[in-house]
Structure formats: structure tokens, C-alpha cells
Amino acid sequence: MTATTICSPAVFHTPQNPDCALARASQVAQRADFHRWQVLAQAMDPELDADVQIAVIAKATGMASGYIQSNLVAMETLNALPLLHALQEQLCHLDMHRLRAIDSALSVAEASQLPALDEELLRWLTPTKAHQSLPGARAIARHIRGQLVIIDDTLPEADVPPPPPEWAYSMRINDDGTADLYARFDAQEAVAIDSMVRALAAAEGISQPQAHARLVSGDAQTRITLNLYQAKDIPNAPVFLPRAGWLSRAAGNELANQATTVREIDQMSTSVTTAYSTPEAMEAFIEGRDGTCRFPGCGVSAEFCDNDHRINHAEGGETGPTNLFKLCRHHHNLKTAGRVFYLQDPHNGDVVWLLADGTYVTDEPTGPLSAASKRWLQTVNGRKSARDRKARTRAQAQKREERDQS
Ligand SMILES: [Zn+2]
Predict the structure, then answer these.
(1) For a disulfide at 288, which of 113, 163, 369, 379, Cβ 3.0-4.6 Å?
(2) How far is the CA of 331 from the centre of ligand 1 (A)?
(3) Where is this region: Disordered (predicted)?
(4) Cα 393 to middle of ligand 1, angstroms
(5) pTM tops 0.85
(6) Are residues 81 and 117 in the same domain?
């Protein structure tokens, strides 16, 4: 990569569109904000009590102590990622909300994993095309979690899972006579429970809390189908569960072992039907390609989205992946009303949105079947193979040494 590539107006995320006055004004404010946090981070003296220093900053700036602390920690984490830091110095495209998301997602990473994560974040957050959609804080956190799950195979598997913290389950009575139940699960367990609740509620025409109560009391049962995605051309490829994301090896294997149907999904990419409704296998392909609603920045999970016929079925638009894209109800309505419009790139699944102000923005699919996910899995697999080869070479050398000594 060269500085020329990054600075060229030919490639940029939309908040850095040099021809957009709104983007330029926002950039000025964002640079000033980033500069402020750089100054504050540099002013922190590691020899002095952090709480006292934060209190001084709070008094001087009027900002809340918690906000100051989380931003300073985010700046510290950025310092531990030299490649991303250099990119941020140059583009200043990540606001503090995104930097805090990076810090929070990396809080469980080992120091030894940071260089690989840094490399990946540099690759992923460097613009590669014009008018590219900039990933939001949640998408960035999801991407890092996926990285961690997959890169994490160097760590020993935990023998005994840690006990859940006390706050992982609680109930709060509200003033209006209602009550909230809170429970924390592993993501894959939560997705399964939530899917059962939604399925029962829809089947019986009852509310989701009612369905939840009936399931917990044993008064009802329901069957659900969860689609899992796993690459067949990569050995021990990780498993992706929609909404939960990439799963740890143990969780992925456990779920994959329960699978009742396995199907080749790639061939669906060119399938077409004359019917209006989408066949089940094609639906699984489109969900797996898109990941979320395809409107830029919208994070609604693909399984809660409608299938939008880009060219209307009544006007000859076919029911097939090249004409079907996931849109949440809100963005589907915007498109149907003609307030926004998109074109698609048949080669990579990108869609280009034409907005009411005459500008456009490119959205890349983010699901496990997207071109970006496939490239990324190949890269991770390449790194893993190289590491395994090194480990084998080391073990062989050690054996030779032991044999020579005996
Ligand atoms: Zn949407």
C-alpha cells in the first residue's frame, strides 16, 4: 500500500467524500475531536493517580468522568495498534464511538494477537473504492469478535468455563407494575432461545413475552431451524451462526454435530425461479451472502429482513440472488416509495445506492458467503497453515537434536 493510494480521491469512505460539503464540515469537527483526545491522552502521567487526573480533566472540560475514561482507554488501545494508528492519523475516519468499540472488542484479546488484528483492521478499514460505506461501531466490533474466534486457536481451550457473574441474571420490578427479566447467555444459546420464542409467538399469535413464559414453564414446545454456514474447501473451517457470528471451535462443532441437513449452497448463486416467493435454499444463500440489511450502515440481521426484488417481479425481475437483496422493512419501504434506488455489481455482490441528493454509496455484503468473508477465511487459513508448518519444522528439529545427543 502507498500513501498515494490512500490519499487519492478515487477511493474513500463516504464521510470523507472530498466533493461533499457536509462530509468536509464533519471531517473538520472529527479531526479536532481526535486531536483533543490525543492531547488529553498524552497529558496523562502514568506516575500519577488516573482517577485524580480524570477528575481534573472533567473539571476543565465539563465532560463526564466515565466518558473521559473510556475515551482515554480507547486511545491507549489505538496506540497498541501501530498500523491502524497510522491510518487513523492520516484519514481520521474513525470517530471516538468507533474507537471505543475497537477497544471494547479487543478487551479479551491477548497481547500476542494484537499484531495480526492490527494488520486485519488496517486492511479492512482502508478504503478500496469510491463512495464506500464506512463500517459502523457495531459492525467493527462484530468483525473483531470474528477475528478473535478464528485467530484464537493458539490458546489452550478452557478446561472449566468460568462461573457466570452474579449480574448475569436479574429481575427488576418497574414502577408501573411490570417487571424486566435479564439473563446473559453465550451468543449461540441466546440465538436458539430467541428463535424459539419468536417461532412460538408467531405460530400461536401470542406476544413474545407470553411465548417466553410458556416455554420456560414447560407449557409449550416448538421446533426451530437454524442455518449454520461452514466453508467446505477449508480444513476445520469455523462455523457461522447468523446473528451470533463466527463461533468458537467447541461451540461450532457442537452445533454442527446436531445438523440434520447439509447442503451445498454455492450453487444457489446462479439459481433462478419464475415464482415470486423465494425457495428455502435460495433464501439461505441470500441471507448468508448479505448478512444484514443492505442499506449502508443498517445493521438489521438478514433473517429479519424482506427480500427485495431489485427489479420488480411484476416488471420481469427474476427471483434469484442476482435480483434479490435483503432490506429491513424500513429501508424496503424507502426503496419501494422510490426515495432511494440501487444498482448491483453482479461479480462481487456490491450494491451502489443512488441517494436523493445525487450522491451514491457502495455497500459490500458482509455475510459468511460474501466475497470479503471468503477472502478473509482463506487468509486466516493461510496464516494457520504457515504456523502449523513452522511448529512441525521446530518439532522435527528438536527430535533430530534429541536423536543426535542420545
Ligand atoms: Zn435497513
Answers:
(1) 369
(2) 5
(3) 365-406
(4) 50
(5) no
(6) yes
